[in-house]
Specification:
Two copies of one chain form a homodimer. The first copy, chain A, has about 375 residues and is of the alpha/beta class. Chain A contains 15 helices and 13 strands. Chain A starts with a strand and ends in a 9-residue tail after the last helix. The interface between A and B is large, with 84 and 84 residues.
Chain lengths: ~375, ~375
């Protein structure tokens, strides 16, 4: 027998936790009271079973449940269903983590490049990498391409679309990708660096396929997409079938306070094929504590079924000034994503970008005793 | 200019709410501080704007924000992105409701049948309709078909797969759909009624297409699927392209405590094409209050861009004994879904099912002065 081992944080009075935990295990499997399951095989091999209950603070418990692998059909949508389909509607239950069985490693893609491949792609063998975002939406493709060029000339490794850029009239997807990709190629010729542009893919499955086709034909080096927004099953299929470049996962709509961010944004998005995963860094615009950031980064990088590690991308309102602190926090296996703080510089955008890049290189040298790499421009 | 009018419930100190609300409007549009937006057109026509702030209890406010329709590209994924992409990560923000512009009525499918069409399909001109669920998973296709036959002979209108039934080895999708559809057709020949079987569609986009093909070739009368699980964009595309029968939406993975259930399960799933929507009824296994149930049903049935009303399907641990109360609560435009409470009857399943159906018909007669319809069997 093969099982998924799921861990839930459950709010309950101590007197009730045994029955609450049992109800959770049944909700996520047979969805029936056990006395209504008359088949012994189903009771023993299909029904979820509580493995362990551990106190976790006042009126909270960690509940470990094993769920039969066979119930998932090893399908993305059905796996999420078995893990948190109905219980997502229970205010007192949070899905915290899952240990997947070995079959999942054979059937799910995992990151294609991961940290090692991204370092090679970006010619950044040891240092933290940098990322900036094209915005605000409302600008034309040409205006965005101009910002893209500036970021690349400034030495940023990855220039990504704001996740709000889709296929809007003011900067249609095809025109924007063409303009920005040409801009980054021209900048790379000037700098001798290998910056990549990562357009945002968003839409229904057919739209995503068409956007992937454009990405291939334009020679784009990376893509950004939000698995919770396009749907995790569609995300996984897209990555497997239509994307040959690295994939940057965006947390939009992940509602991550209901599913633990380290699991959802770290482990699960990685399992489905994210080469890098964006998440809020503490002290920015989102109320993520330092422990949550540590754990999310760890979920990106810890051993997982022999898959490559994915790259943690802390973001969400961090400023250039905080670069040293953030590099110290995550170590070199990280990509720093700074958006608004750079664009606040207005006409000084190039200089501010350079400063960002220089600070990362300097922090890296200071913290990890590496030589700073010369920045061409 | 065309706008979406979104309403958020925000937890904040009174002294901070103005700036918190402004930050929310920017987060869901340009994702930049306004002082970084140098283009006047973008400031006036693309950036989200706070329309109204209303106190809503201690440290809570209702914040009305208008978002430019043009930012959505009138695409499902991008619309969700603009409504709650990043703010879903904010613990202090809940998306409560949205008024969509008229363009959405032209571009999104809405229910194909809705209440009126379902009543005609099920030959139930005025009474509440009934629904039962095939479970537990682990049973074979033949065993499930036998339960299906029993439900149909008992007079249930819709026999749906448990949403946990996918394409598992013990009851593969194709074999299960074939067996259950034949069972319901045979039962209908015996009873003279028009019960329908609604198999559960779950998987990545390609899997959903194949399941839809099987549904068509078997002559199935209805389908069940969970938009939050398969992804709302994939759900909408499937409904538009590949499904010709009514669609029953399941709330699995909707994490509905973070997005207000009346909006998500009621209005939004309906906008995307659900003919009926399942949600937890109060007093069952889920902590939904009566107001939430009233509001969710209202969202299914209130005027929406000229679209047909969708059918509220309260569920989640309700018993046969509660039928009169539930009918009184929702009125006749409802479908009652009872699962485990019927199957607890074991060998008395047929009788218990009949009792369920009879109670609904009797309640209806008592409450709404309709003639009970004779139940053939």
């Amino acid at each position: 027998m093969s099982w998924l081992h799921a861990r839930y944080r459950v709010r309950s009075r101590a007197a009730d936790i045994e029955s609450v935990a049992r109800a959770l295990a049944l909700e996520q499997s047979v969805e029936l009271p056990l006395e209504a399951v008359r088949n012994a095989y189903i009771r023993d091999h299909i029904a979820g079973q509580v493995e362990r209950i551990t106190p976790a603070g006042a009126d909270h418990f960690d509940v470990a449940v094993r769920l039969a692998t066979v119930t998932t059909g090893i399908d993305v949508a059905q796996t999420i269903n078995m893990l948190f389909g109905n219980s997502s509607l229970h205010d007192h239950v949070e899905l915290v983590d899952v240990d997947f069985p070995a079959e999942f490693g054979r059937c799910f893609p995992g990151p294609r490049l991961g940290i090692t491949g991204l370092r090679r792609l970006l010619d950044a063998p040891r240092r933290p990498m940098t990322c900036a975002a094209l915005k605000p939406q409302g600008l034309s493709a040409e205006e965005l391409a101009k910002i893209c060029r500036t970021f690349a000339l400034g030495g940023v490794d990855v220039v990504k679309d704001d996740h709000g850029l889709a296929d809007q009239t003011y900067a249609p997807f095809a025109a924007r990708v063409h303009a920005c990709q040409r801009a980054i190629e021209a900048a790379n010729r000037e700098t001798g660096r290998r910056a990549v542009y990562a357009p945002s893919l968003v839409g229904a499955p057919k739209t995503l396929r068409e956007q992937a086709r454009i990405v291939r034909s334009e020679g784009v080096g990376m893509v950004l997409t939000a698995p919770a927004l396009v749907g995790m099953p569609a995300f996984a299929e897209l990555v497997a079938d239509a994307i040959a470049v690295p994939v940057l996962a965006h947390p939009a709509y992940a509602g991550a306070t209901r599913v633990a961010p380290p699991f959802l944004l770290g482990k699960l998005f990685r399992l489905l094929g994210a080469d890098a995963s964006i998440f809020p860094h503490h002290g920015g615009r989102f109320a993520y504590g330092t422990q949550l950031c540590t754990d999310t980064a760890a979920a990106c990088r810890s051993p997982l079924l022999g898959m490559p590690a994915s790259l943690p991308v802390p973001a969400g309102g961090i400023s250039v000034e905080r670069v040293p602190e953030i590099v110290r926090f995550y170590g070199p296996d990280v990509m720093l994503l700074i958006g608004g703080s750079l664009l606040l510089a207005g006409d000084a955008l190039f200089d501010r970008t350079r400063e960002f890049v220089a600070r990362v290189e300097h922090s890296c040298a200071a913290e990890f005793a590496l030589r700073p790499q010369p920045t061409a421009h």
